[in-house]
Amino acid sequence: MPLSRAQSLIGARLPSREEAGLLLMPRHMPALTVLTVSCDRSGRPVELSRSASRCDRFQYQVAFNQIAVTPTTD
């Protein structure tokens, strides 16, 4: 199934006890979070991805092949 777009929300928060254990990090150190929704050609969401990473060992790279500007009403 070809995907036509994805939208990611990047943030930071304190890790849960389980995440801190899995990531071998203290609970007081923020984790970088990424929530991504991928859509098919009709715009229907088909994949949801959530991740938490150590902020001291993570790089995030974004590449744009096509840029579309959507006006907002803010």
UniProtKB/TrEMBL annotation:
Task: Return the Gene3D superfamilies for the record.
Answer: Chorismate lyase-like
Q: What's a single GO BP term from this record? A: regulation of DNA-templated transcription
Picking any one GO molecular function of the record gives:
DNA binding
Q: Where does the record place the UbiC transcription regulator-associated domain?
A: 2-59
Record protein name field: Phosphonate metabolism transcriptional regulator PhnF
Q: Which organism is it from?
A: Pseudomonas amygdali pv. eriobotryae
